Amino acid sequence: MVTEQQLIDLILIAQSYNLELGEKMIDEQKKGCDDCADKLVNQILQLIILVEQLYYKIELNDYGEETESLYACLLSAVATYSGASLSLDQNAVNPNITIIVDIIGNNQPNELTFYWSDFIDNGEEGRVRYENAEIAGWTPIIVIGDVDKTLLKFRDFTPLSTGGFELKSDGNLPAIYEGQAGWIVGYEPYVAPTPSYPSTGTYRLVNNSTIDTSYFITSSIPLLAGQTVNNAFTSGQSLIGSIAIGQKLNFTRYLSNGDVDTELELTNPPSTQLNTSVMDLTKSYEFIYTDNI
């Protein structure tokens, strides 16, 4: 079975290869060979699609047969990349494969090291936001030294369009502490994060505040500070979200395609709860609590 680290290593290879292909595409366009550039565009798109599919599999913690098939396809897709020597057996995944990557391209910012002191001071021991205008327009590839961990975009951190990133509270590294260091070992062009919304027929409650609260479906259920709840609902159920004093609640209802159907912001004081009435199985619901600052 393919492992998370194997997927991450291969994703890094593919991202590096994509940057190389992008440079070749620009060179072909400058030469006036549009057909050559179009072929490279198709190759780049193939890599992007495979990488995003594998990111999704990692997020789902799914390392089964379909993931192995995607892994084999990506192995084949990067076979001509000079920066790695890879097994090309599409019917098997070699668990002992070693991948060496030269990430940095000529047109990218330099590799850099960052420390706890480089993060925005949020008044907490653990800091979460790193800003650097010099890397604006790029999404960093991040390795944290003392935990020997590669962080995944959108799962472990959110890239900033203005340059930098913000660690996610539910990621593998929710914050960085004094004495910790990390490295940006490569880059890919910045892409805005895809909005995340619950799937149809489900609800999500996120308590990002410092205050415990509760919600009600068939009975009152605690929702502790820092807790996230994802559940499916059944026909005829209604959902009541209670707002503790000092909290703010952002409520969003989505259509099946992810478009926003209803969006509300409530605070306590003055509001104390929000009732969805009877929930619609063709829609999804999201309650996000934060401190009412």
Helix-and-strand structural type: alpha+beta
Q: Which regions are unreliable across 5 or more consecutive residues at pLDDT < 50?
A: 85-106
How would you describe the shape? globular
Radius of gyration: 22 Å
Please, could you describe this protein's structure?
It is a single chain. With 293 residues, this protein is an alpha+beta fold. It folds into 3 domains: 4-77, no CATH class; 112-189, no CATH class; 202-291, no CATH class. It contains 3 helices and 16 strands. It has helices at residues 4-31, 34-59, 65-77; strands spanning 112-115, 129-131, 138-144, 149-151, 157-159, 164-167, 181-189, 202-207, 213-216, 220-223, 228-232, 238-242, 247-254, 260-267, 273-278, 284-291. The strands form 4 sheets. The chain has a 5-stranded mixed beta sheet with strand order 11-8-16-13-14, with no helix packed on it. It has a 4-stranded antiparallel beta sheet with strand order 1-7-3-4, covered by helices on one side. Strands 10-9-12-15 form a 4-stranded antiparallel beta sheet, with no helix packed on it. It starts with a helix and ends with a strand. The relative contact order is 0.11.
Keywords:
293 residues, alpha+beta, 3 domains, 5-stranded mixed beta sheet, 4-stranded antiparallel beta sheet, 3 helices
Element layout with pairings:
Layout: H1 4-31, H2 34-59, H3 65-77, E1 112-115, E2 129-131, E3 138-144, E4 149-151, E5 157-159, E6 164-167, E7 181-189, E8 202-207, E9 213-216, E10 220-223, E11 228-232, E12 238-242, E13 247-254, E14 260-267, E15 273-278, E16 284-291
Helix pairs in contact: 1-2, 1-3, 2-3
